[in-house]
Design brief:
By secondary structure, this protein is mostly helical. Helices cover about 65% and strands about 5% of the residues. The model is unreliable at about 1-30 (pLDDT under 50). The strands form 2 sheets. The protein has a 5-stranded parallel β-sheet with strand order 2-3-4-1-5, with helices on both faces. The chain contains 33 helices and 8 strands. β7 and β8 form a beta hairpin. α20 packs antiparallel against α21.
């Protein structure tokens, strides 16, 4: 090589030298590749996230060189990334050093563009200030070149990035190096980046964080140890957000006389919680969330605010569209933007929810940024959405002879009953809060109508306590409107719910009260329905004679002329109740004869749920007559009809009965398959009694198959469930079977 021959890269003027084989940048500038800020002394927990980041930064594949740590404001992304980076550096993972830059992506006044961010990075790599190229492209090229020439692997930490565009020019070209990015957005358009979504701390981690911060400030501060349950309350009111917890700890550090319980009681006030989670101008949870909110487009900010009108825990795309007045497509797009910004969280397919603290912030924004008129209009749209959906579902699931006359008036939200039940299961947690909201704003018409109709569908899903709550709103709404008919019908429904949970005394009390209210109205159909429901209660409670007296009165009322279709259903329903009473008296042949007439009638009017119940009851009668093949036939048909009608509870009960029929015919494998299905449905419904019943039967099938340990486990589980119910008869049966197997039930 000749003198003055240049080999390498040049940025700025060259310095003449005798021989050049490397970049010459004038006077030597110190290298600064240990630039991590100090980590938080109160850091605790996050073991799973630390392990995941260790895997990411330690990976050797080129495709995993960038990791994005994402999460909402205040969740501790920066602290987590710095802790992981520090651990990796201390472990010798990055002999080439570490670079750090805060991009201030969520503060519009301080946001660092890529060109500006590259200047301190180049200086850290030893480039003198006057040698830093003036334009972005040249700075990025020099940055990548210098990193490529480093002998050891380096780590670049890019904190608080707002977008992929803010990051892309800061990525090393050499695949040896690793990059950690923190952002409130997912940065899904950053090619090849791994995503680590950070959520709140666990309750235990949250308490430990506060304890660590207190001990760090004042060694020996034992207020957490003395707080008992108040420490968990404090963590809960802080949402287990590290920033909120750090603010709470700072408040306690500044006031050493304040107890954990006192601060927890202060934060219990939702209206003031965000005000309290502040240490003045230096640190405020509200101010931190402000930065994210102020960067939203106006439409998305409005969606964010209006979502809080829903008092329930989660909001679907369809409900969000009703709340905002957007189309489904527009609402979905707006929700996706809020999700990407971690202003909301995914709660399931097409459903979203707030973190508690962010919801408080959104509620404040709703109050501040929306007019009273706009809020009221949103509430009315929201309530109308649920009311219309449930009303339409009634038309789908009622007898065809009734529904066909009014179905053209429905909103057309569901093509089939199956579509409704898919919607219903997704929306179920929101429904009772929606009824409560209607009552709260004085919409007793909606509270009564929605509460009364929900009872039917909640019952099909076995949600009896929710059904009682819905009906109580219906009772209150009826009293406000002085509507004795609706009041009596709702009271009767509450009695039926208690009967389903085998609370016979409560069922009788509500049934008698309902009958008393309805008798005063002279409403024939309502009185007959209450008589029938109360008769069923007395039958189940062991008083069939009283039940027959009530049913005779109901029959006389059903014989009077009224609307033909209502007459048919009323007469069929009363006849079905009589058949059940005959069954309770062990008059099985008579019960079957009556039920066959009832079954034909329900089929004629298209009352599918009632049809399925009648089929099941015929199967039960044949079972007790030991005509098992006929019982199996009716049980199988009942299950099919129950599925069509959406009667999950009825389906589960019949699966159990079908298992018994197979067991009686020594078809043990088929019996166990049906018991498993009954168990799955009971667990889905949260029905302890039905689950215990299925476990009892399943244990018998397992014992017959000589799978004794599994049988014992099944019976022990049944006993544990029955200890939480008042069904001593079934409990004694299970205990006896376990004892007969040769093991005490307490072992």
């Amino acid at each position: 090589m000749s003198h003055n021959e240049f080999v390498g890269s040049s940025f700025g003027p060259l310095i003449q030298a005798g021989h050049i084989d490397q970049v010459v940048l004038g006077a030597e500038v110190p290298i600064a590749l240990a630039g991590l800020p100090p980590t938080d002394t109160g850091f605790t927990g996050r073991s799973a996230e630390i392990a995941a980041l260790a895997t990411c930064v330690g990976a050797t594949t080129a495709s995993s060189r960038v990791t994005v740590v994402t999460g909402p404001a205040g969740i501790g992304k920066t602290t987590l990334a710095l802790q992981a980076a520090r651990s990796a550096v201390d472990a010798g993972e990055f002999p080439g050093g570490v670079l750090f830059v805060d991009l201030h992506g969520y503060d519009a006044r301080r946001r660092v563009d890529p060109g500006t961010a590259l200047e301190p990075l180049l200086r850290a790599l030893g480039v003198a200030g006057e040698r830093v190229p003036p334009d972005l492209a040249s700075r990025a090229l020099l940055f990548r070149s210098l990193l490529a020439e480093r002998p050891g692997r380096a780590l670049v930490v890019l904190d608080n990035a707002f977008s992929a565009g803010q990051v892309k020019e800061l990525l090393p070209g050499d695949v040896r190096h690793r990059v950690l990015v923190t952002s409130r957005h997912t940065l899904s358009d950053l090619p090849g980046a791994r995503q680590l979504d950070v959520g709140p701390l666990s309750a235990e981690e949250a308490v430990a964080l506060v304890a660590g911060l207190l001990a760090s400030a004042h060694p020996g501060d034992d207020r957490i140890d003395e707080a008992g349950g108040a420490a968990s309350d404090l963590a809960r009111f802080c949402g287990c957000f590290p920033l909120a917890l750090a603010i709470a700890a700072a408040i306690l550090v500044n006031d050493r006389e304040q107890t954990i319980a006192t601060l927890a009681r202060t934060l219990a006030d939702r209206a003031e919680r965000l005000n309290e989670l502040s240490t003045g101008s230096e640190r405020s949870l509200r101010a931190t969330i402000d930065l994210s909110y102020e960067l939203l487009e106006s439409r998305d900010a409005r969606t964010f605010r209006l979502l809080t009108v829903n008092p329930g825990p989660r909001t679907s795309v369809a409900a969000a569209a009703r709340l905002t007045g957007l189309t489904d497509r527009e609402a979905r797009r707006s929700l996706a933007i809020l999700l990407s910004a971690h202003m909301i969280q995914r709660a399931g397919r097409d459903t979203f929810q707030f973190h508690d603290l962010i919801r408080l912030y959104a509620e404040e924004r709703l109050s501040r940024d929306e007019t009273d008129e706009a809020r009221d209009g949103t509430i009315q749209r929201f309530l109308a959405y649920y009311h219309d959906a449930v009303f339409e579902a009634v038309m789908h699931t009622q007898a065809e002879s009734l529904a066909e006359h009014v179905r053209p008036l429905t909103a057309g939200l569901f093509a089939t009953s199956a579509e409704f039940f898919e919607w219903f299961d997704r929306e179920r947690p929101n429904l009772i809060p929606a009824v409560a909201l209607a009552a709260q704003i004085g919409r007793n018409d909606i509270a009564g109508s929605l509460g009364g109709r929900l009872y039917h569908f909640l019952g099909l899903r076995g949600s009896w306590n929710d059904a009682i709550n819905a009906l109580r709103f219906a009772v209150d709404a009826a009293q406000e409107r002085s509507d004795k008919v609706e009041q009596g019908i709702a009271l009767s429904g509450i009695g039926e719910c208690h009967l389903a949970m085998r609370r016979f005394d409560d069922a009788v009390a509500y049934g008698e009260e309902a009958l008393k209210v309805l008798r005063a109205t002279k409403h024939r159909e309502g009185i007959a329905a209450a008589l029938q429901a109360l008769a069923t209660t007395y039958t189940r409670a062991g008083n069939p004679n009283r039940a027959l007296e009530l049913l005779d009165e109901a029959t006389r009322l059903a014989e009077r002329p009224s609307l033909p279709s209502v007459d048919v259903l009323l007469a069929l329903s009363v006849a079905g109740s009589k058949a059940v009473t005959l069954f309770a008296q062990k008059r099985y042949e008579e019960s079957i004869e009556q039920l066959q007439i009832v079954l034909a009638g329900f089929r004629q009017v298209g009352a599918r749920k009632d049809e399925g119940i009648a089929l099941n009851n015929i199967g039960d009668a044949y079972y007790w007559l030991e005509r098992y093949d006929e019982a199996i036939k009716y049980y199988l048909e009942s299950i099919v009809v129950a599925r069509i009608a959406g009667n999950l509870r009825g389906e589960g009960a019949t699966e159990n009965s079908l298992g018994n029929a197979y067991f009686a015919t020594r078809q043990n494998d088929l019996a166990m398959a049906r018991y498993r299905q009954a168990l799955a449905i009971a667990r889905e419904l949260g029905d302890r009694y039905e689950e215990a019943q299925a476990l009892n039967n399943f244990g018998g099938a397992l014992a017959r198959a000589e799978r004794f340990e599994e049988a014992r486990a099944s019976w022990r589980r049944a006993i544990a469930l029955l200890d939480k119910t008042d069904n001593s008869r079934l409990l004694s049966t299970v205990v006896r079977r376990l004892d007969e197997l040769g093991e005490n039930c307490q072992d």
